[in-house]
Amino acid sequence: MLSITGNVLILTILVITCLIIYKSLASLKNKKDVSILPIIYQLNLLQTTLTITTFFVLVAAFIVSDFSLITVFQNSHTSKPLIYKITGTWGNHEGSLLLWINIMVIFSFLFFVINRKNKNYQLYTLIIQNILIIGFFLFLFLNSNPFNKIFPIPKNGLGLNPILQDPALAIHPPLLYIGFVGSSIFFSAAVAALITDINSNYFARSIKPWIFISWIFQTLGIVVGSIWAYYELGWGGFWFWDPVENASLLPWFAMTALIHSILVLEKKGNLINWVILLCLLTFILSVTGTFLVRSGVLNSVHTFANDPSRGIYILSFLSLMILFSIIIFFKKSKKEKYFFNINSKETFILGNNWFMLFYLITVFVGIVYPIFTEVVADTKISVGPPFYNSVIIPVVIPFLLAMAVGPNLKWNKNEFFNIKKFLTLFLLAILVNIFLVMLFKSSSFIINLILITSLFLIFYSLTDFYNSIYKKIKFDLGRIISHLGFGLMIFFIALNSNFSYEKNFNAKVGEIKEFNIYKIKFNGLGVKEKKNYHSIAGSFSIINIKKNTLLNLDPEIRIYKNPETITYEASIKSSAFQDYYLTMSNISGSDVYNIKFQNKPFMLWIWISAIMISLGGFYNLLKKKNKKIIYEN
Amino acid sequence: MKINFLRIFFVSIVFFIIVVFFFSLTQSSKYDTSKMVGKKISNFEIEEFYNNKLISEMELKKSNYNLINFWSSWCGPCRDEHEVLLKLKEINKLKIIGVNFKDKKPNAINFLEELGNPYNLILVDANGKKSIDFGIYGVPESILIDKNLTIVKKFVGPLKPRDYVEILEILNK
């Protein structure tokens, strides 16, 4: 029943989407009519309503456990708690693709309704976006249909992978998708801008809020994913340079470059070609990431069941998209001349873009190089943290400096920046760094540099904050929050990576081990029974010899029933200044357990400052809206 | 002219990446050595365990069938398969060559003294690099090679009694 409903809905939406394109093209031909026919609005509304309905039909199938659908059968089970039945909807390839299309359609509708000033631009954006929508709908319908039936109907499902049964994972995909897929709307708008040769200032203003929305959600999505990996995968860190994590960084770098250069376009009308290129690049990179992850070319926790036919479809679609963008860009883009003063804001924003591009290319090479060697030379290599650390970390230092100074410069003017402020704050940063090194003892040269520059950025942002609040000097508060967040994040990451303590050891029940300043006692084991798993829970006492404090940690080994899987749950005690982290795994056929103990300072602050980065964007988005209302009134 | 060159350069890079992606789809994502069966092993030179003499592929041509077994004293499953290897030693048609993999010599000697020496010849691969040419990625693994240096059968993990039966069947064909 639900299968038929779903399939009928998908086909109806396909027809409506084609109609939208047809009607829009007809409306474009009719040059006399300046306004857009109401029928196009109605079709758009219908398309959006039906797409959302389709999604809820699938959610309903998961809630009532309709195992006649293969997708539900493979990813759910009657014994799951309701919340994980619902989140299971997007915890698989087919369902998440439907979510992807939902975001595309909703963004398409909202963009169409909001930007009504230029008919041609509005309609071309709609057409391009709907062509993309058709592409993804066909993919969904022909290759990854969530409404495919299975017969005979199984009594129960195979269950959702236990590592996905987690609140963070319930929100991670939707957040990330709004970022990834949201970029489709400024891809379409950029193509429309090329075709219609629209006023660059209007173009900038029309896509700016969408860039902010996508950027905010993608930043949050990446942070939530990172938090999840920290406590669920038991790797004990915040970033692993895993190829799939990196794939999500690629569009983020492009979007971060875009969020800066759009300001130049908005204020000065410069850089139109560059902004358009970045708009195209962001969505292309989003689809590239999807291709790499979904086709199984990269293997990781994000790989759903591998299916090369999926890869071929996405890659063909991607190639067409790239080909189309290149042709239209080379044909339609106009030559621009730039006159930038070295000391102007524009130069520094362009500098930011070069940094972003550098990171983007580094990470891209890191992802693609192993694939390349495998295809060309049939050798397996892996590019890991040493590569990224040695290439990216030194470049962060000048980046942090530029990030502090840049925003304080004036547009256009060749005015030398405030050298007194620069030197005072730099000196202060060095002093604080010396104090920190004395406090924590050991520290390497590069870490010192990073600490100094990040402190410099923090102080600079704080003075900006002070000036904007008390001296009423006009500053962009959203920018200050984001830059401060970034400075804090790098600062805490540097401290964290330098002062973390980690120890791996084997122990039996009752044993006491001593390392460094810790005494770790393995008290005992217990068995817990839960609705969909049972677990072996260890009990450990950590005694800090120096401070004479006691802490209890109880990691678990969980054995899930449907599907039968073993997961290792870390036991984490977080406090304001440090996390204690302990995982255990049994060594098969013995009563010895392998224990991984970690002391990680400032983990909480890394998360908080990362979230702060996206909050800055959020503030800016809301602020802009307020201004608009006043202006319109 | 200059811009055209840049454009061509840009487009060819993009094109190249897409082609690589297309080919990557056909690659199998797991490291698998089963396709080694039926292939010939290439020429090699490996040191002998006791007297450091260099042994080449000529040594394999002396016998109709050779079983090359990769082992280490630190490897637990190698102990499990030792019984099977000792039993295989009784077959005359088969020459058993052991390759001592990433091991310390005194430990390896102790291992053989404790459990017995099943090998007709022992070679040393102290850093594990030579074994890569045989398609080995861990211990224990064994490969059965005929006179023409063709890999007839590959055993990943410890040899089991049923592997003994299978080897016998191959030899008696």
Description of the molecule:
- The complex is a heterodimer of chains A (633) and B (173).
- Chain A is 64% helix and 11% strand.
- Chain A is of the alpha+beta class.
- In chain A, the strands form two sheets. In chain A, strands 2, 3, 4, 5, 6 and 7 form a six-stranded antiparallel beta sheet that branches. A four-stranded antiparallel beta sheet of chain A has the order 1-10-9-8.
- In chain A, a hairpin with a 3-residue loop joins strand 8 and strand 9.
- In chain A, helix 10 runs antiparallel to helix 11, helix 13 packs parallel to helix 15 and helix 15 packs antiparallel against helix 16.
- Chain A is flat and about 85 Å long.
- Chain B has one domain: Glutaredoxin (3-Layer(aba) Sandwich), CATH 3.40.30.10.
- Chain B has a seven-stranded mixed beta sheet with strand order 2-1-5-4-3-6-7, with helices on one face.
- Chain B is elongated, with a radius of gyration of 22 Å.
- The mean pLDDT of chain B is 83.
- At the A-B interface, helix 11 and helix 12 of A face helix 1 of B.
Keywords:
heterodimer, A: 633 residues, alpha+beta, six-stranded antiparallel sheet, four-stranded antiparallel sheet, 17 helices, disordered C terminus, B: 173 residues, alpha/beta, Glutaredoxin, seven-stranded mixed sheet, 4 helices, 7 strands, 23% strand
